[in-house]
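To close the chapter, one final illustration. This time we ask the reader to focus less on the individual chains and more on the assembly as a whole: which components sit near each other, and how the overall shape emerges from the parts.
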Amino acid sequence: MPKYFNSFISILKLHSNPESAWHNFTAILKHPLLYIRVCTHVEGLIDHYTGSLLYETVLANRSDSHNIIEVVAYKGKSTIYLSLAAFKVNKRLISFELFSGLPCSDPVLDSGFRKGQFSSDINQYIANIATYGNSSAVDLMIGDARQTLLPKIVDNGFSVAFLDVDVYEVMKELLFQLWNIAKGNEIVIIHDINSPGVRKAVDELLVIAKNRVIETHFHRNTIAKLVILPQF
Ligand SMILES: C[S@@+](CC[C@H](N)C(=O)[O-])C[C@H]1O[C@@H](n2cnc3c(N)ncnc32)[C@H](O)[C@@H]1O
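The assembled structure is written out below.
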């Protein structure tokens, strides 16, 4: 128990911004067991608030497609939240990852990121999902998602997608691929929306989507939720 108490205190200290600490505090109150299961064991680049948002989005989504998508996985933290929810609603999580880190970075638009950053170890990813998530609900697709995403989901579409790819070129390509197969009622959650490259990619989608994409923000404007409306 002291271990959990200490990590609970450290999450409050970790967030230099009081609003962010408060969001995580309330997420811990809502999903305490998930917090203990994931955050006290698995290293990753999302916090418990974001993980809880992913978890709740999958549980609440009513689209027909059985495919939940995440690009990308890193050491599996987002995969764990998504796989636990996917299993509960009898859907599949398709997890796309290169394991060699970011494939590119624009020096101006993506100045906070560099090529090769966030490389990770597939064995650690697999062990984390097996121990803390639900491996039986996950299909892992190794390789560049810009090539592997469409062939995997073109027939059955997707219901929820989580994009955490950090850089303009990848974000734009994936968003446009998802947009081209979307039928309506899909949800796309985007991490780091305040990064200029990610913002530019979403803005370019909004131009071609006209009024069919509704964007809302969470967590001090670091996360965007895009709801794709059906075409009438
Ligand atoms: C910020 S990390 C993801 C963090 C993760 N969601 C978590 O919960 O900790 C970004 C990841 O994007 C992956 N990535 C970037 N572009 C990719 C692409 N085109 N295809 C597959 N993986 C990609 C990198 O390998 C890296 O692991």
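The pocket of S-adenosylmethionine is lined by residues 44-46, 71-75, 77-78, 96-98, 101-103, 118, 120, 144-146, 164-166, 170 (CB under 6 Å). DSSP finds nine helices and seven strands in the chain. With these observations in hand, you are ready for the problems at the end of the chapter.
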